[in-house]
Amino acid sequence: MDRRWFRPAAIGLAMMMMGGGAVAGANAAEPPRIQSPEEALAQDAGEYATAFHLPLDVAMRHLLAQDETLATTDAIERAFADRLAGIAVAPGPDFAIDVLLTGDAPVTDRFVTAAGSVVLIRFHTGAAATRAQMAESIRLHQAEIRASLLRPPAFGVDQRTGTIVAVVGDSDIAREGVQSLRTRLAALLGAPVRLRTVERPSVDTAAEGGARVVGIDPADGRRYACTTGFVVTDGQRTGIATAAHCPDELDYVDGEGQRQPLAFVGQWGWGYQDVQVNVSAEPLAPLFFADTSKTVARAVRNARSLAGTRAGDYVCHRGERTGYSCASVELTDFAPAGDLCGGACLPSWVTVVGPNCRAGDSGAPVFSGTRAYGIVKGGSYRRDGACAFYFYMSTDYLPTGWALLGAPSPMVNSVTSIAPSPETGQR
């Protein structure tokens, strides 16, 4: 058996041969160091501390509290299912959680202990529609709204405010006016609407990633590169999950430029999915790269469901183009603009604020610590090329029969894609 360290591609996960005892590193001779959960937390906390201007020890407590309050907010979601408009993490100096409900019946604030600190859970009432109602309204009316606009819009639910965010073109605002357009969309969607523009429509991000894989697209004969992602299994085989808009046949490229083929299993890219599976001839371990230089790796231990994802959750991704970076979840139940999903996309995606996304990040893993959140599909860019936000597919929607290796599969509660690019470009 070839004992070279193998780092396959697809979403950003590093992989390890079972007989080797380590994961692929920056080159074949030097496998990366595998982080402990505590080291993973400290690395992400460094980004959090910078983003929110906090001391590192406070940032670490906040990220621990983010993770330890997941069970609490899941319970709140179940208890207030008929009223829940949103749950949002407030990351300021005083970590707190806001719960937004429909109706006027008040709910007393609560306190829970997480990460050794007392966390305030604040309840707010008066929302016009629940999160589920807003997501369903987007699904029902997006075709009608799209037909009435010059540029295809995108829609998402802002759990902080209980509003639907409509990402529209400047030309539509100029033609109809801000107030008139907002009022018309709100009447159709049955919820308050906030308008947003980004000067450039959403696009699939070019495939590159946690590690590099390459393949030729038979449609144009060009070579594309993608990002590798999480390791998946069907109980017998192990492989990598990457974006479905990557080429079918992929070669894993190691640190010395040597290639190993990854056999194509299938791709699922309609409505709520953008995922492809390529299997390895060698067993893989549930590892992924977690730094720009690919010198450290993490093992997947948990996953987070789409239904339980909160606005303000702080997540990271590792793309082949942009490396490692972290930012906050902004919109859930997001329906990207255009025909990125074999037609219109369903409101099943999640957005993360920029500025770090570029073509080539497609298929990259989205994670917090050792918890898997999803796989990068695409992004929206401003006219100057800067990343406004990227969006990912929840690991809920891995293809039937396949699951994350190393983590229990999250339960799918509802149906709530960056793209390949030529090696001379990015997907």
Number of domains: 1
End-to-end CA span: 32 Å
Instruction: Let me know the average pLDDT.
Output: 83
What about the largest sheet?
A: 9 strands, antiparallel
Taking strands numbered 1, 2, ... along the chain, how are they ordered across the largest sheet? 27-12-13-16-15-14-10-11-28
Output the number of helix runs.
6
Radius of gyration: 21 Å
Strand content: 25-35%
Number of strands: 28
Which regions contain 5 or more consecutive residues with pLDDT less than 50?
1-29, 203-211, 411-427
- What portion of residues is helical? 10-25%
Name the shape in a single word.
globular
Structural class: alpha+beta
Explain how this protein is built.
This protein has 427 residues and is α+β, with helices and mostly antiparallel strands. The chain has one domain. Helix content is 18%, strand content 34%. It is built from 6 helices and 28 strands. Strands 27-12-13-16-15-14-10-11-28 form a 9-stranded antiparallel β-sheet, with no helix packed on it. Strands 9, 19, 20, 21, 23, 24, 25 and 26 form an 8-stranded mixed β-sheet that branches. A hairpin with a 4-residue loop joins strand 10 and strand 11. The longest helix is centred in the first third of the chain and has 18 residues. It is globular, with a radius of gyration of 21 Å. 52% of the residues are buried.
